């Protein structure tokens, strides 16, 4: 595709957004009914601010959902340490709840405006960010163009690009170049990601590693943890986390296979808790007894499956086990989920073969011996059985996972160093602001 056709395609995208703008209100209302939008804050999606802009330098940080938000928290705290205000946008209700619980009054939180001309222009005109930092992989053409038009630096951190996305962008090379060349800086997770961003037109690109390796372990309520440990008692237990449709049936099969040998408890944490009713029905159809976290059900000796259908409690579930299967990895083209949290919380990590979204992390863990890749349900059952009966092998995997995590640390310092040309002037400006006129960042709604 020529550059002229690329410009025409991007113009068509923006024009389509303008033409469909009258339908945005009903669309957001529909999503609110489905629980995918915060009804009381829908206007934020149209670019209307619900909070005041503080005086002084402000950086717009965007994290699409929960995983990206967790990854970027240490960087946000570094910006706040430098007295730079942080406007954090996210796109989901669950990530907004996470911001409220974890970042408290450290940031100003807004839902990200839709990638349509009017909301984006309204949003940027009000907040006037000095820079925009986006986590990982989202590219929104209208937002990119509007920021570039105002010469606001666009920086991508913890950047990655999946196999599927890379092929899609490469097939539309002129469009990719027209967007990626507008980035002031890309800080990539791995050498492969960096090479792909350069191929698509981004420059400069550096490699930092994965910011998720520098995050703190997910927290948990110690009283709740103690209660469940008491209820589990001496039973063997393992977890399947971040599972997607189809994998819950595989987990049920593994549980039924191993139950005569171990009488174990299986903790099942779906990636999308709103599927919990359907998952519970499926499990009960196979004759399994289910306790649900959302109902605060007790764990009895008869409980087969503890269904972790709550938000923000991965730290609880992983502290109850030493064996964790990480989902979205058994079916082809799914891409895997983050293995770093189970590794840092002392779990031997198991995964299906499809982990391209976290390829670098799995390579480190597998090379050190902290993770094993299994190809199917039968192999998963054998791996869980082996780790349950072999304490030495299980502890070796746990220790190796800790070693791998230590090796992977350092992404935050590399990222901050790369950002210094952009944030050092803002730090100076922030510290020159009259203290009485520089309120702390407004509380998250």
TrEMBL record:
Is Magnesium a UniProt keyword of this protein?
Answer: no
In the record, what terms sit under GO molecular function?
A: Kdo transferase activity
- InterPro entries attached to this UniProt entry: Glycos_transf_N, Glycos_transf_N_sf, Kdotransferase
Instruction: Please name the Gene3D superfamilies in this protein's record.
Output: 3-Deoxy-D-manno-octulosonic-acid transferase, N-terminal domain (3.40.50.11720), Glycogen Phosphorylase B (3.40.50.2000)
Catalytic reaction list: lipid IVA (E. coli) + CMP-3-deoxy-beta-D-manno-octulosonate = alpha-Kdo-(2->6)-lipid IVA (E. coli) + CMP + H(+)
Q: Which residues form the 3-deoxy-D-manno-octulosonic-acid transferase N-terminal domain?
A: 43-214
**Compartmental location:** Cell membrane
Kindly state which keywords UniProt assigns to this record, in alphabetical order: Cell membrane, Glycosyltransferase, Lipopolysaccharide biosynthesis, Membrane, Transferase
- Quick one: which pathway? Bacterial outer membrane biogenesis; LPS core biosynthesis
Q: What is its EC number?
A: 2.4.99.12
Superkingdom per UniProt:
Bacteria
Which family does the similarity line name?
Belongs to the glycosyltransferase group 1 family.
Q: What does this protein do?
A: Involved in lipopolysaccharide (LPS) biosynthesis. Catalyzes the transfer of 3-deoxy-D-manno-octulosonate (Kdo) residue(s) from CMP-Kdo to lipid IV(A), the tetraacyldisaccharide-1,4'-bisphosphate precursor of lipid A.
**The protein, known as:** 3-deoxy-D-manno-octulosonic acid transferase
């Amino acid at each position: 595709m020529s550059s002229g056709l690329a410009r025409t395609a991007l113009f068509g995208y923006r024009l389509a957004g303008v033409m469909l703008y009258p339908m945005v209100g009903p669309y957001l209302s529909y999503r609110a009914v489905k629980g995918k939008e915060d009804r009381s804050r829908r206007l934020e999606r149209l670019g209307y601010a619900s909070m005041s802009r503080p005086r002084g330098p402000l950086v717009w940080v965007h994290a699409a959902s929960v995983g990206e938000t967790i990854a970027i928290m240490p960087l946000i705290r570094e910006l706040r340490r430098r007295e730079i205000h942080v406007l954090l946008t996210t796109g989901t209700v669950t990530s907004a709840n996470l911001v409220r619980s974890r970042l408290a009054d450290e940031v100003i939180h807004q839902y990200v405006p839709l990638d349509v001309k009017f909301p984006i222009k309204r949003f940027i005109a009000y907040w006037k960010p000095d820079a925009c930092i986006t986590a990982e992989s989202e590219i929104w053409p209208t937002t990119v163009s509007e920021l570039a038009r105002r010469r606001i630096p666009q920086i991508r951190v913890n950047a990655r690009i999946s196999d599927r996305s890379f092929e899609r962008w490469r097939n539309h090379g002129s469009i990719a170049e027209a967007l990626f060349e507008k980035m002031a800086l890309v800080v990539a997770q791995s050498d492969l990601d960096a090479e792909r961003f350069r191929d698509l037109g981004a420059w400069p690109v550096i490699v930092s590693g994965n910011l998720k390796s520098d995050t703190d372990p997910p927290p948990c309520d110690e009283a709740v943890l103690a209660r469940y440990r008491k209820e589990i008692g001496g039973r063997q237990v393992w977890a399947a986390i971040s599972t997607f449709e189809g994998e819950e049936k595989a987990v049920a099969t593994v549980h039924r296979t191993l139950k005569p040998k171990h009488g174990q408890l299986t903790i099942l944490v779906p990636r999308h808790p709103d599927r919990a009713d359907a998952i519970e029905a499926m499990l009960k159809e196979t004759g399994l007894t289910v306790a649900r976290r959302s109902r605060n059900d007790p764990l009895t000796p008869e409980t087969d499956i503890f269904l972790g259908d709550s938000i923000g409690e991965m730290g609880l579930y992983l502290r109850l086990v030493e064996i964790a299967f990480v989902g979205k990895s058994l079916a082809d083209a799914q891409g895997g989920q983050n293995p770093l949290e189970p590794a840092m919380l002392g779990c031997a990590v198991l995964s299906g073969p499809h982990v391209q979204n976290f390829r670098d992390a799995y390579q480190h863990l597998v090379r050190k011996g902290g993770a094993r890749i299994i190809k199917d349900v039968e192999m998963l059952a054998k791996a869980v059985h082996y780790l349950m009966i072999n304490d030495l092998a299980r502890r070796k995997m746990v220790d190796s996972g800790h070693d791998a995590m230590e090796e992977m640390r350092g992404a935050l310092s590399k990222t901050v160093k790369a950002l210094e040309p952009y944030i050092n002037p803002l730090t100076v400006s922030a510290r020159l602001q009259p203290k009485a006129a520089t309120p702390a960042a407004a509380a998250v709604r």
